[in-house]
Write a structure and sequence with these properties.
Layout lengths: L20 H9 L3 H12 L4 H13 L4
């Protein structure tokens, strides 16, 4: 099991499209931002509201760099 010791979850300034939420998550977990963006798009498909609410909540909760 890997740990994220020493890493801090922050919104990315370099890897961003809107607010840097997906880029920040990708940098924190060490994977491509593509997968987080794909998950957000999938969350938008049913009605749009769940994905938008998740993104806005993460935008508010995760501090910027």
């Amino acid at each position: 099991m890997t740990t994220n010791q020493g890493r801090v979850l922050r919104r990315s300034r370099r890897n961003r499209m809107l607010a840097g939420v997906c880029g920040g998550l990708a940098e924190f977990f060490g994977i491509s931002a593509f997968w987080f963006r794909l998950a957000m798009i999938i969350a938008l498909i049913p009605d749009g509201v769940p994905g938008v609410l998740i993104y806005i909540l993460l935008w508010i909760m995760i501090p910027g760099e």
